[in-house]
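Q: How do we represent a protein-ligand complex in a form that can be generated token by token?
A: Start from the inputs.
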Amino acid sequence: MDIVELLSGTSFFQALDDDTLAAVLSQHRRVFYRRNQEIFHEGDQAHALYVVISGRVGILKSFLDRKESMVAMMESGDLFGEMSLFDEAGRSATARAIEGSELLEIPYPPIRQAIESRPKLLWSLVQLLARRLRQTDDALTDAMFLDVTGRTAKRIIELAGEADEFVIPLTQEELAGLIGASRERVNKTLATFVRAGYIEINDRNYRIKNRKQLEIIAG
Ligand code: CMP
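Then emit the structure tokens for the protein with adenosine-3',5'-cyclic-monophosphate bound:
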């Protein structure tokens, strides 16, 4: 895929003029990760941000180094690894390829230089952070006010988008992490939805049969 075309869909890069874009990309690398390969680990020192060219990347938080939960999923055109650019407090979460993925790795120094010479560029990064904070607030509210059944229905609708037939490219464990519940609870809930005729599941292929009912359950 053409990098410039891919980046034109990302607001930070869209805001760069040609010379600045060339400077920001002067040290980039295209990197490949196998399924399950770690890109970086929570707490690591950070030197670069990433844009997904193809594939999918999970953003995971760990609990007492024993359990992991996926908080977000990055897909083609999504940017991640930007938080450490601002706070230098180490990676806030672990990033791992959910499937074979090609990424653009862009070191921080030319990005810092571009921002220092044109501080207006900060707007798009601040907008990205604000969007993520809103999503986190929504997830927190869902965790407080919706039960596992409600959260599962809501996630299924979100992952489906407009489509009734779709693929969720996640293991049951990963999906449970995104829903914020144990794998057992999520499995039971999905089985209930299947029995009730709301959805059909065939491996990772899903089909929504009764969207209205799912929407009611999702609150
Ligand atoms: P950074 O802290 O550098 O490395 C981990 C990255 O995961 C972080 O930057 C963000 O890009 C991303 N990230 C962390 N938390 C969230 C979240 N709640 N939603 C979406 N992305 C996140």
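The radius of gyration is 19 Å. The pocket of adenosine-3',5'-cyclic-monophosphate is lined by residues 46, 59, 71-72, 80-84, 91-93, 95, 132, 135-136 (CB under 6 Å).
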